[in-house]
């Protein structure tokens, strides 16, 4: 082999070795990077999908959904066992009042009255979480984690906020804000379900 052939072979090997890292690179949504995997409750979760929440023409936040296994339908997402995470990065400043109202509107649009009555104490606790934080600033990271045997825990910039909410029905009701029949953003729903 001559020197040129050896060099080409080495370059091809280097490129081939680098390809898997490109295949598993983080997903970018409006400049927000979502890792392919995260750990919740000691278990590794996969990025199911990620997308952008817009209101009128404004980018509000980027959101990613993490599950133990990738799912492409709402019933499968709601039934998946194990931990889950919704990761949100704010792309503009939003008052907690505005964010809380959007949460309530989304919950009301996608759950029946009987279901809301059953999870009302947890809805109230969740409202208190937003009362503790007057403003969500651009760049703030909000995580909503479900861990079996514990419940739902909110984190703001990695710090726990609010109390644990124990009912899976509450977490699923929150997921339906984005994934329900009347999602808060019709383009975000398919993105979270991993549709290209």
UniProtKB/TrEMBL annotation:
Gene3D superfamilies referenced in this protein's UniProt entry, alphabetically: 3.50.70.10
Statement: the UniProt record of this protein carries the keyword Ribonucleoprotein: no
Keywords from the named record: Lipoprotein, Membrane, Signal, Transmembrane
Segments forming domain Chalcone isomerase: 26-194
Signal sequence, renumbered to the chain: 1-25
InterPro entries reported for this sequence: Chalcone_isomerase, Chalcone_isomerase_3-sand, Chalcone_isomerase_sf
Keyword Membrane attached: yes
PANTHER family membership: FATTY-ACID-BINDING PROTEIN 3, CHLOROPLASTIC (PTHR47698)
Protein name listed in UniProt: Lipoprotein transmembrane
Organism: Duganella dendranthematis
């Amino acid at each position: 082999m001559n020197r040129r052939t050896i060099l080409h072979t080495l370059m091809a090997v280097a490129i081939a070795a680098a390809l898997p890292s490109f295949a598993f690179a983080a997903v970018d949504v409006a400049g927000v990077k979502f890792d392919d995997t995260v750990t919740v409750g000691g278990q590794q979760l996969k990025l199911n999908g990620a997308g952008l929440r817009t209101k009128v023409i404004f980018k509000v936040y980027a959101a990613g959904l993490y599950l133990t296994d990738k799912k492409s339908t709402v019933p499968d997402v709601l039934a998946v066992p194990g931990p889950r995470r919704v990761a949100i990065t704010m792309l503009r400043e939003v008052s907690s009042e505005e964010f809380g109202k959007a949460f309530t509107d989304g919950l009301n649009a996608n759950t029946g009255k009987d279901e809301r009555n059953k999870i009302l104490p947890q809805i109230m606790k969740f409202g208190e979480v937003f009362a503790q934080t007057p403003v969500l600033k651009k760049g703030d990271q909000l995580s909503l984690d479900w861990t079996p045997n514990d419940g739902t825990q909110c984190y703001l910039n990695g710090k726990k906020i609010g109390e644990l909410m124990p009912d899976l029905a509450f977490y699923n009701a929150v997921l339906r804000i984005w994934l329900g029949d009347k999602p808060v953003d019709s383009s975000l729903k398919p993105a979270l379900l991993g549709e290209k």
